[in-house]
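Example 3.2
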Amino acid sequence: MRKQLITLAVIAAGVAGNAVASAADVGASTTIDGQVFLDFSDINQKQNGTDVPPSGVGLDVKRAYLIANHTFDDVWSANLTTDAQYISSTAGTGYTNSTTSNSGGATELFIKLLYLQAKVNDAAVFRLGSYNQPWYQYAVTLYGYRYVEKTETDRLGYSNSADWGAHANGLVGDNGFFNYALAVIDGGGYKNPTRTKEPDYEGQFGVKPLSWLNVGAGFYAGHLGQITQANADYPTHSATRWDALIAVVKGPLRVGGEVFEAKNFKAGSASTGVLSGPAGVVVAASATGTLLNDQAQGYSTWAAYTFAPQWTVFGRFDRAHLSEDVDPKLRDTYYNLGVAYKPIQTIDLALVWKHDDVQNGTVSIGSGDGNSSYTVGGTGAAGTGAKTDGEFNEVGIYTQYVF
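Structure, written as tokens:
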């Protein structure tokens, strides 16, 4: 056993330092794989008409997964997936990923997925640990361009890609006519395995009435890892989210759209226009504190068409109203256009233009550059009529490769 562990560690280190062309096979039942999202682009971001960071030219490594899979037998298996990102001196706010700070720039290595799996059959697969969230897994698979951009709820901070807890999913019926995924989780995300007063719940249900047609719905309910024994008696809200999606994947065509409504994940500010949360939204700062009620709703549409064996054109359009109850004019509009080239099976390259526009406030957006998140919007008091608009434009080469 000790020899196997040493061998696994040596190969993992070798894969991390050298881009191995294919998965390493450690014995008969353990493999090491990798996946990287990388881009080289020019960003121009304006706040009330003035250029602000992260404007400029640079190379970003958005994701760098190192994946170890081990199969015990026909039922039991295990997975460990690490990830890495660059963090500046202070980085990380809000629900998407916990807080991190350091005295200078650093590369952060962390666990993304870590679970024990029991696959009884295709209809009953159980996992214990950190695993992909039900709606994220469903939507990102049908969207197909995660290496270019996060899905809408993930990008805006209304969902997490993974969390710690108990997970179940399965396919039922001929050709997977019905699919489902359920999770009972901590609620703080994969970087924050917090022990909370009670768990959160997320689910996704889908059908494929035709081999090329997907229709699904999802829900989320809980406290986002915010309620502990220390603040259990403070005023609280439950955060809820409802999702629906329809997608066609047929031959060279991929087209779809999703809608969401999220309550009390975040709240706008009538005085500043800043959207923030979940701290101070799900649970008050003190036993006598007050909470705002706020909700967001939006939609995302996408399309892609493979016009030649290695070439695809694609595009996406999102719009979200982010503070329906407090700052109704706060709105985010995002779109991208691109052409993708697949030179070999394990590499995708895309020339992409992105545009993000925030009106009447300020929003934290995920995955702008290598620092993980960025702020789009203006400055000034929203309630006074001051201009609080901002926009983000990016042109660059995006790639994902697996090994």
